[in-house]
Amino acid sequence: MISSFIPGLIMIITSFLLPTIPQYFRHPAMLLSVGLSALSLFNGYGTFLEWDILGLNLILYQSDSLTLPFAIIFHIAAILVIIFSWHSKNLMEHMATLAYAGSAIGALHAGDFFSLFIWWEATALTSVFIVFAGNTNAAKDAAMRYLIIQVSSGVLLLIGACLMLYQTGNHNLAVLDLKTNFGIFIFIAFGIKAAFPLLNGWLQDSYPESSVTGTVALSAFTTKLAIYALARTFPGTDSLIWIGAIMTAFPVFFAVIENDLRRVLSFSLNNQLGFMVVGIGIGTELSLNGTVAHAFVHIIYKALLFMSMGAVLYRAGTTKASELGGLYKYMPFTTIFCIIGAMSISAFPLFSGFVAKSLIMSSLGGMGMVLIYFILFFASAGVLEHSGIKIPYFAFFAHERKNKVKEAPINMLISMGIAAFLCIAIGVFPKYLYQILPYAVEYQPYTLDHVISQLQLLVFAIIAFLFLVKFKLYPSEIRSTVLNSDWFYRKMLPGIGKPLFKKIGLLTDSLYKNLGLSFKQVLSKSYKFSNLSYIKVTTPSFAGTILISILFIMLVIVLV
Amino acid sequence: MKKNDLKSMGKSFTKYILIIGVLLIFLDFTFHRHEYFSFAEIYGFPAFFGFVSFVFIVILGKWLRKFLMRKEDYYDQ
Fold this sequence. Notes:
The complex is a heterodimer of chains A (about 550) and B (about 80). Chain A has about 550 residues and is mostly helical. Chain A folds into 2 domains: about 1-235, no CATH class; about 250-480, no CATH class. Chain A has 21 helices and 3 strands. Chain A has a two-stranded antiparallel sheet with strand order 1-2. In chain A, a hairpin with a 2-residue loop joins strand 1 and strand 2 (about 55-65). The longest helix of chain A has about 45 residues, at about 485-530. Chain A starts with 8 loop residues before the first helix and ends with a helix. The termini of chain B are far apart. Chain B is flat, with a radius of gyration of 20 Å. By secondary structure, chain B is an all-alpha fold. Chain B is built from 2 helices and 1 strand. Chains A and B meet through helix 11, helix 15, helix 16, helix 19 and strand 3 of A and helix 1, helix 2 and strand 1 of B. Strand 3 (about 480) of chain A pairs antiparallel with strand 1 (about 70) of chain B.
């Protein structure tokens, strides 16, 4: 029976039952539901559940070598988030988180575009409550914008799926290209969730507004689901190489000047997605393996970094770099975990980022794509700048802190500890990660050439940082807002729209007034010719209302 | 607690990083580093690339503040 139960669905059902479960048992119940869902990981490959409805054959549960690594890491992420939020009593957020993770896992197993659409929207509708749970006015506003963008992505996907069905008679997940109109619709739908350049505003807008624990959940699922979807439907699409390269490079500059460290991590998340998108664009077995491996390790170290900043927010009350510093004395464990996350994302040898990023870099090098190779190499120095140095430096060091804060709660430390352990374990023993990748590829990341080259890049980038700080060239943190692509719909469109609508409003007002006047004139003229007693407003009695209703119902029945 | 002092920590960190940096450059002379692109095999190329990229990112980012930076309550106005 378990074998035909859609993975993730048990988590969604549990999330709806959470209000009936006493507070103390909620987190164990959540963990149990993830564990039950994870049983599906042992089902092997194949199609397990189909549903014929309205003449459509929906594939609700299928699994193959691309699904499995994503399903494994989504389950791990769900467990990390649940442990991290163990101290919290926010029921709405727990429900939303569990249902969100469940929807994302369900989406991985959809075998056709219509099933995918349902889960696609389910992740949007559940995750918006996580943003909402930030419980500030800014979070509520961001949640509304987030919802509009996410649902729009779903609508584009639905349009694409309908067009595809109409034109080809097929709606199963398949490799598409950008020569068809439905391909373009689906590409943009995925591109919104994957935070392509200029479609990325929602990510940096909403994630940092969410709660201490919420951001950790958000960082794991939506964007990686989009990466999975792109890897399934658009592998080897050339334009993805350039889109990905731009994604790796441009958020780097925004991250340098951003003050809110959780927003810095959101820019960093965007840059990491770029590496994965490049891997999909190349489309070879090695590069697709690289994308999947990168998504896998990225979810862990990005969750770790967001957890460490969540712990800082929880204890120090802010993640603004301008107000932090010196926390290493009071939060030593959080500091160590954050540094492990920072070294992993920066791809230091023996950390997880190194063994994953190498696959993508090697496939670029092997193809002779020199320009893209060095854009990504350059972006690697950028990752070190914002995630490797800026995050730990401004939060935990920078200057001595005056007022004391407590170390993070034990559940947070456990969750961060597990994530940190995984970061190092994968870095030291990459073969276990390589075993679950979609294609069997022999690859050795630890060659002397590769290790020395990467260490030179990283160490001399750190020396550059020390040099810039020494000569006071490193920009100080300033409380500010950094403009991003959400500016277009938060400032520019309202800037044009509001005065325009005001003018239209004034126009229609005057039109109505004029019309009203002439109507009155006609009416007053007609009065002269008619007996005023004809114009009488009557209110129907109770019996009359019943009679009219019965007549109306009879009319409906007759018509039907 | 003196040992935990940020300044002394910073100093010893700088010292060790510089030593590692020198070692890495020295290592480059001891063997031929194979790269995908021949110009990247020049001695210390990744080190130079890392240093210059980092400085470039920070300086350009700082310059971009002129265009991208607004007051904290910019969107609330």
